[in-house]
Amino acid sequence: MSTYRVAEVLSANGPFEIAEREVPEPGPGHVRVRVEACGICHSDAFFVGAGLPGVTFPLVAGHEIAGRVEKTGEGVHEGWKVGDRVGVGWFGGSCHHCRACRQGDFIVCENLKVPGWRYDGGFAELVIVPQDALARIPDGLSFTEAAPLGCAGVTVYNGLRRSSARAGDLVAVLGLGGLGHLGVQYAVAMGFETVAIARGEAKSELAERLGAHHYVDSTAGSPAEALRALGGANAVLATAASAQATSAVVDGLRARGELVVVGADMSSLDLTPTQLLSSGRVVRGHPSGTSQDVEDTMNFSVLKGVRPMTETVPLDEVGEAYQRMLSGDARFRMVLTMS
User: Fold this and answer.
1) Adjacency order of strands within the sheet including 214-217
2) Is the pTM of this model over 0.70?
3) pLDDT tens digits, residue range 239-294?
4) Rounded distance between C-alpha atoms, residue 146 and residue 294, angstroms
5) Is 272 within 8 Å of 249 (Cβ atoms)?
6) DSSP H helices in 53-137
7) Which terminal Cβ of the chain has fewer Cβ within 10 Å, N or C?
């Protein structure tokens, strides 16, 4: 009997345990992927901690997957071949029958198939995924570089390219962590006059290294005032998982400016209708992106030299790596490797 290893959690917030399972066969329309790398995302905590409905145990988390097609099931499109390098992100497939899917807006599918939530994720040597979840990895990216782009990368890339900002506009990125360090790189690559906002003067060097044109230390004064001194932001990409920090930049938007929220926080934003009405400002949340969006993100990253900053650890050390991610000490994406 052929087996493979997974890192599973047996109960909410329980420890990760390495287990062996029998190798599964891909069903119709599905593909078996040999996982080479899988990012550890802060959103994994929602699943490990049973913070979302429908989470069941034992649970195998992981939705930033990079690997190779090992076997295809019946009915899989002939474009996917054994050996193809593929990524699977937060978008792990859609139902194709809900209203959003029928309108072609697959990322907001009412029955979205997020790996690690709707089926076993990538903290494993193998994973079975629907074919519509697959994104082709370009030759210019390694597996460890590609993995975080399936969630963190596509989220900030899409958030920026679908904002109202245009090349030459002033765009701020709030936060310089796992999302923000990519957001700054993409903003610069898209031709925005880029402002990085973070806590402490010590991060100004990192902001400069990432290409930011301006740095705002949010602990030294009002970040909104700093943005207004620069003329006001056409868009702010809020990557910090802090409703308080996000609320503090709203008044830094210029007229008809847009606050794009991608950092997850369960707290409420503190803002008033008049802050939006008087200047026609917009606040919107932005979900991740489809497999095509992930592919776009990876191709743009190769074209412009954007790369995630990663720390790699073997699957056996998943528990320590997960805790390092939770603590905020990771610089900046933790990635599990299976080799």
Assistant:
1) 214-217, 193-198, 170-174, 233-238, 253-261, 282-285
2) yes
3) 999 999 999 999 999 999 999 999 999 999 999 999 999 999 999 999 999 999 99
4) 10
5) no
6) 99-102
7) N
